[in-house]
């Protein structure tokens, strides 16, 4: 483990059924404030890889270090680690039984990070940042997909994480909503958040990513700057994939 | 860590249960006189003749009850009657749930192994009876016929012993009146029962006829569990000796068996309205018991079910297995068997009596609780896994995620099933009548044993159940609507 990385994944192996490996030895280093976009064909293991990073999925082999702490170590309190890793899901997963504001204050208050008053103040701050402060008191179900996703981002940010994981955050959105969410993510990137983003938005990857990882068959087949991956792909599979997605 | 928390959670109902068992233990008998619980039959004329309201409080309660009354007064002890089917009485006696029993009970060698009998106050035996217009004139005509007997009685034992020889089918009943009514209605061809009882019934219009002679005569006596309540047995014997010496016993017996014997109370008004009016008090009392059982039962079941449900989705798989086994067991055991096990079986284990109500609530808690456990677990499970993932990804520990995020959504999904289970619980309380709980159903059975108005009485009872369940359904719909807003 080298101290200069925020997140370091080394030789990760994961199978769901104990027989077929879905992740077959993937490694990735992410420096502080770096934005890494993960692209690749569906079923190649991108989501699984991302979900391993906050241990929503267990993995069989390899190491995942966050600030030098190994998540594979059974002595590590995973709840404490998760507090430092924000996650945004494809389907938002807001809590429908709470208002927007309660969605955001729940974790900081329950985990004793902040008292209720501070949490509410902070929540409004994050809601302003994602441009959703006027909806603080409504139930999430009354919001559009794009609005819900922005609230979900605010909810993750409220824990003041060191790293943000995005799992296809715009795939479930109507096209006209995608821009709002991507803009929020861009803003975050500019503010120096370390981000790992699984995405199909090639434009976003090109524009915002420091590094692009091309996932294929459970491994990172090719890794490089956006220019390297999009303009001068080396691997046959990368070329095929980009041909397919960029030509539609 | 979570294991510990869950263990704490589990400790609650377990300790409640234990507390319930011990709190209900017989309170240290104060200096005051002990009240003996004496079991007796639901109806067994002329030994037990119920009043219009299904009790034995009237002037002509039958030979057994009058004997007991006089002896208790003379020997200066207090007693409380427990009215159950003969078979339930015998089991309750053997398990120590009742102190003594008087129910036209025959002294047999087999029973003497587990029961101590008093001196005898009467002698009777088994007779065969058929409908008045039946063609059956001897046992030989019973081939292929259906013959009714009362479970656990000497008639049943006798019938069984000759069943092969005469080739009839046996049908079991829990009380004589229904057995007889069945023969009269033509559902069965004949019945075996005690001779004096059949003869008294015939004199009071059962529409049966006795075939042949009385067989297997045996003395009738008061009974206690072998080796127990010997002071009660002695008082009974002393009192009986006094009754015999003073001629009072003969008087009591004659009152019911001589030519001018008292008739059983005739029900004056047998219209539905008349029956309701006459029995309003008893019916209301039964209804109240049903409601009490349902409410306390569902509350206990909710607590138990909630714990099972939480175990069923606990972080550690061990608890899933345990919850599954518990749910499997209690859903698999018929509720009546569970009720008997708790009421009749547990006292042997505990070494003291378990009050009827407690036994009923325990039964409901375990049986309905198992179903509620499955509902709760199902409700939790049907919450989108994305909710779990979102909560956990924020750093919430498993049980916080469950309690704050998943459970509130799960409960909402469960409400319709829980309401449904409450209605089922209310109906299921009727099963507890088997162990003698005086609920609406048992009240009905007792009243009918006395007034023979089976059709009308069951109709009344059924309508009462329907009314409460309708009210309950309305109420729950109203609450559900409220909750949605
Ligand atoms: N919960 C699961 N159980 C079993 N197999 C899964 C599960 N989730 C994903 N998979 C399988 O793992 C492989 C990788 O899936 P995923 O990580 O979702 O790929 P991607 O995100 O690249 O589309 C696929 O073959 C998928 O079917
Ligand atoms: N109550 C009864 O039915 C008693 C029946 C019979 N005398 C017996 O002892 O088995």
From TrEMBL, chain A:
TM region(s), chain numbering: none
SMART domains: AAA
GO molecular function: ABC-type amino acid transporter activity; ATP binding; ATP hydrolysis activity
Keyword annotations from UniProtKB, A to Z: ATP-binding, Nucleotide-binding, Transport
ABC transporter domain sequence ranges: 7-242
Protein name: Amino acid ABC transporter ATP-binding protein
């Amino acid at each position: 483990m080298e101290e200069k990385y925020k997140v370091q994944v080394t030789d990760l192996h994961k199978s769901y059924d104990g027989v077929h490996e879905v992740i077959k030895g993937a490694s990735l280093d992410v420096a502080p404030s770096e934005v890494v976009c993960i692209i690749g064909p569906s079923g190649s293991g991108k989501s699984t890889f991302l979900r391993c990073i906050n241990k929503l999925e267990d993995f069989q082999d390899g190491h995942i270090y966050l600030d030098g702490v190994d998540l594979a170590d059974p002595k590590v309190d995973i709840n404490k680690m998760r507090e430092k890793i924000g996650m945004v899901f494809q389907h938002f997963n807001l809590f429908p039984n709470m208002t927007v504001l309660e969605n955001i204050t729940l974790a900081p208050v329950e985990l004793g990070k902040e008292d209720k008053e501070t949490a509410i103040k902070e929540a409004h701050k994050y809601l302003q940042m994602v441009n959703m402060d006027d909806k603080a008191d409504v139930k999430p179900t009354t919001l559009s997909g794009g609005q819900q996703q922005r609230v979900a981002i605010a909810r993750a940010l409220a824990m003041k994480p060191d790293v943000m994981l995005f799992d296809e955050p715009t795939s479930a959105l109507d096209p006209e909503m995608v821009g709002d969410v991507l803009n929020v993510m861009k803003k975050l990137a500019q503010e120096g958040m370390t981000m790992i983003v699984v995405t199909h938005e090639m434009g976003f990857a090109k524009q915002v990513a420091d590094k692009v990882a091309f996932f294929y068959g459970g491994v990172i087949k090719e890794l490089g700057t956006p220019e390297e991956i999009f303009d001068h792909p080396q691997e046959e599979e990368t070329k095929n994939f980009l041909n397919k997605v960029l030509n539609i | 860590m979570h294991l510990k928390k869950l263990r704490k959670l589990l400790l609650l109902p377990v300790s409640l249960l234990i507390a319930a068992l011990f709190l209900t233990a017989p309170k240290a008998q104060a200096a005051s006189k002990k009240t003996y619980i004496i079991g007796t039959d639901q109806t067994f004329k002329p030994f037990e003749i119920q009043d219009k309201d299904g009790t034995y409080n009237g002037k002509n309660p039958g030979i057994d009850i009058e004997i007991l009354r006089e002896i208790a007064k003379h020997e200066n002890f207090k007693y409380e009657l427990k009215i159950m089917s003969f078979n339930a009485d015998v089991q309750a006696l053997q398990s120590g749930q009742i102190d003594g029993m008087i129910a036209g009970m025959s002294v047999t060698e087999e029973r003497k192994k587990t029961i101590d009998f008093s001196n005898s106050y009467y002698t009777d035996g088994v007779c065969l009876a058929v409908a008045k217009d039946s063609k059956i004139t001897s046992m030989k005509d019973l081939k292929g016929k259906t013959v009714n007997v009362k479970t656990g009685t000497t008639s049943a034992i006798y019938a069984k012993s000759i069943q092969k020889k005469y080739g009839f089918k046996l049908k079991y009943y829990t009380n004589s009146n229904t057995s007889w009514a069945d023969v009269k209605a033509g559902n069965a061809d004949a019945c075996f029962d005690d001779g004096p009882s059949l003869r008294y019934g015939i004199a009071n219009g059962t529409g049966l006829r006795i075939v042949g002679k009385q067989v297997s005569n045996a003395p009738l006596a008061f009974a206690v569990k072998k080796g127990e309540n010997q002071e009660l047995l002695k008082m009974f014997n002393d009192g009986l000796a006094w009754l015999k010496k003073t001629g009072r016993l003969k008087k009591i017996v004659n009152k019911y068996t001589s030519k001018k014997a008292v008739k059983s109370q005739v029900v004056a008004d047998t219209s539905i309205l008349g029956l309701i009016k006459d029995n309003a008090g008893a019916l209301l009392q039964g209804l109240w018991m049903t409601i009490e059982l349902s409410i306390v039962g569902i509350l206990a079941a909710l607590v138990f079910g909630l714990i099972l449900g939480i175990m069923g989705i606990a972080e550690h798989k061990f608890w899933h297995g345990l919850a599954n086994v518990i749910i499997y067991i209690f859903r698999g055991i018929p509720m009546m068997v569970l009720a008997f096990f708790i009421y009749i079986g547990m006292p042997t284990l505990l070494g003291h009596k378990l009050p009827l109500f407690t036994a009923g609530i325990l039964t409901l808690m375990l049986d309905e609780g198992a179903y509620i456990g499955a509902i709760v677990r199902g409700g939790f499970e049907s919450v989108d896994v994305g909710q779990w993932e979102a909560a956990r990804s924020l750093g919430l520990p498993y049980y916080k995620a469950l309690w704050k995020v998943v459970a509130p959504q799960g409960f909402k999904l469960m409400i319709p099933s829980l309401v449904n289970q409450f209605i089922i619980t209310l109906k299921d309380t009727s099963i507890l009548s088997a162990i003698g709980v005086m609920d609406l159903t048992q009240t009905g059975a007792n009243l009918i044993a006395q007034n023979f108005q089976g059709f009308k009485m069951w109709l009344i009872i059924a309508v009462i159940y329907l009314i409460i369940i309708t009210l309950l359904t309305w109420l729950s719909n109203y609450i559900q609507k409220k909750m949605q807003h």
